[in-house]
Specification:
The protein has a domain of 118 residues. With 182 residues, it is mainly alpha-helical. The chain is extended and about 95 Å long. The longest helix is centred in the middle third of the chain and has 22 residues.
Length: 182
């Protein structure tokens, strides 16, 4: 009888030991759930600050209000291959480590003016290709996510699914915005 109990306990212990390495006990977890990317909360905060620097809040909602930072993460996870995903994450980490080395703070903790200057400087600097690729990919995905957000597509530049009939002599309203991204 004791042998059965010992085998049961040994099985449970072995299962627990196998399962334990896959458990993440860190306090900070990213709020975005991705299929193939494992990101930290710090990486999420840095990308959020970069997206906010690219399209800040103003008269109309900025990129953060429209959830573009989540869009960027999801697009990187879904559309980029594994090599490009690795390059994106490496570029993000290198960018933030360079900012920490120069200013002593992480990118998201800098003032808005300093964030803008740092991002412009990193974009102009052609030393590290991974950082440049990361910034260009982030800029592209931020613009795409912003222009295709529900708010922009319905209120600012309405998208019409079916175009109107063609009229060759139609006056256009110069105040009306036309959605060229549709």
């Amino acid at each position: 009888m004791l042998r059965r109990t010992a085998l049961k306990k040994l099985g449970i212990l072995t299962g627990g030991l196998i399962l334990l390495p896959s458990c993440n006990f860190s306090e900070e977890k990213a709020s975005v759930i991705l299929k193939s990317l494992n990101i930290t909360a710090e990486q999420e905060k840095v990308l959020k600050a970069i997206v906010d620097t690219l399209i800040p809040e103003g008269e109309i909602p900025g990129a953060i209000s429209l959830g573009v930072d989540h869009f960027v993460w999801i697009m990187v996870d879904d559309t980029l291959n594994a090599g490009r995903q690795h390059m994106f994450i490496k570029g993000l980490s290198l960018f933030n480590s360079n900012v920490k080395k120069e200013s002593g703070k992480s990118f998201e903790k800098l003032r808005k003016e300093d964030q803008f200057k740092t991002l412009a400087k990193a974009s102009a600097n052609n030393e590290n290709g991974e950082i440049i690729d990361f910034i260009n990919t982030t800029k592209y995905l931020t613009q795409m996510g912003y222009m295709q957000s529900e708010y922009i597509m319905t209120r600012i530049m309405p998208y019409s699914l079916v175009p109107r009939s063609y009229g060759n002599c139609v006056d256009t309203d110069p105040n009306k915005r036309i959605n060229i991204y549709a």
